[in-house]
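SEQUENCE-TO-STRUCTURE ENTRY
===========================

Subject: a protein chain together with a token-level encoding of how that chain folds.

Sequence line: the amino acid chain in single-letter code, read from start to end.

Question of interest: how does this chain fold, as expressed in backbone structure tokens?
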Amino acid sequence: MRVGIVGAGICGLSAARYLQRLGHSPVVFEKNGSVGGRVSTLHQDNYTWDTGATSIAPRGKQIQRVLLEELSTEGLIKIEKPIYLHSGLRISPGNHSTNRYTYQDGIVTFAQRLAEGLDVRLEHNVVGIEKARGKYIVCGEQFDALILTPPVPQITLLLWQLGESRPMANVRYRSCISVLLGFDELLPSTNYHALLDTEQIHPMTWLCLESVKSPNRAPIGGSALGAQLSASYSHSQYERDDISLVQTVTGFIERLYGPKFQSPTVWSVTRWKYSQPESLASFDNVNSKGSRLLVASDGLSGGHIEDAFDVGTRTAEQLVEEI
């Protein structure tokens, strides 16, 4: 069976991997120049940041076996320090003892290893789908079945072109701005690798100390930090210029770690319009039995990497079982 898959994020890659292992022929179309979607890494001037998802927490799900047993573990890092909480930048111990992992060269390594041996067409932006004589046509190629993995608003547009709709109107996404900072100063010793504002009140809802999380994320004597701004703040400031966003976040870092951190050496800003779903649709309601056009989006599973892996595999399993 030849299966077209739109999107080379973790959903799409896990579906393709499952199908290929069973002898089918998946082809993955990705609009960007690299795999992973929001599992992404930025390298700049000897600094390294995970710009979207910052760790993998297997939690006993399917991804655990793949991460620890099936894929190469070269460069795989178990994050030793936990997540602490902050309330208005006041820090307190958290209760986040779940095992978490990343890679020394960046979390995108996981997506790259999932993609090894797969037929992935990078820089192929799927803006339209056709159906003719029972086949789906994507980028001029015919497929027996199709799996759509982008965020739900983008899937809805593709379905509309086919005259189809699925019960996903309740799915809503939050936006997120990530501000990535590199300093030529060492951070003071901490008992945590990240700070989380669980109430989502402070503009900086998440701060990952990249150079504490994993070795070689900053030059010797330097520090790498990645801040993610809250959903409400990101929405209201989405069009704000990069420099003022960096200045705002640098002010938070200076309050936490002192005046040595008032001027980053390097910086970058990443905007995620569809960062994470805030509400989900039912997988069974969206994907009826026997359909050759299936949806495997985070809008059906949740925004964590392990959830994305599960829904991709589950979608491929249903396709194989039904057809």
About this structure: The chain has a mean pLDDT of 96. The radius of gyration is 20 Å.
